[in-house]
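Recap from last week: sequence in, structure out.
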Amino acid sequence: MLASAESDLRALSAFYGFSRIGRVRVVLASSPAEFRGLTGTASGDVLAVADESSGRIIISPASWRGDPSRLGGVLTHELSHLVLGAKFRAAGADLPRWLDEGMAQYVAGDWEFDIDWAAQQGQIMEAAAASGRLVRIGQLDALFGGDRSDVQLAYAQSYSLVSHLASTYGQRNLRIFLDGAASPEATPGEGAARPGVTLDGAAHTAFGAGIAELEVAWREATESRSRWWDVLLEGSNFSVLLWSTLAALVIIGFVVVSLRKRRAYAGMEEGAETNGKHPVEEGGDGGGP
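Predicted structure tokens:
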């Protein structure tokens, strides 16, 4: 595990272009209670915490469940927080939460965390896009402080944004963007108090478009892949839809058959009554002295 962590740290330092990282200590909590005590978090969804001030990574036993092979993605994710956070902090620049989390997930490799909702991040994004719940980039950081569904969407959307930038413009331009955003004069946005390079300016330099334009392109690409029928036909959603439809058809069929039987029985009773009267009438017409 230590050899893997050291290798990942070297790779991330090269990727982010920042190597001034102090000693990193990895702590494997022996129980959820110890993890909560070390990190101060009460959420069962939190699998690890990177403490940038101490260079310590604390990992919950829920993230690896006794299998060291599960630690790879978690360690890479948390090491990314340490390296990228140190890069921005050294420059005195602000690191947006969405960019920090999006990059951590991107370098860790498509949500390797062993947690149900994380494994379903694609479905989260598709459902959000189909229902119009996608959040503006400027409002995304606030979503991390919301309820569980908000946090799920914040993580999924952050990863989606970074992945879109990397696949559309390439990793080289993505690193240029990070370098610009982490410049000593960088500010969070166009209206920031400090003069100098803005996050929007860094985007223009790296991608040839500002944050607003990039967001529009990302949103269009995401929504085009996430129409409501795609969400319904996706994986478990399709299974639920299929079985619900079959159940509805069975119920409808049962109702239709029941109605037909009732009508048939009613017709038989009417026929029996009519047939019972005919002989008497015939006898009365044809008989008698």
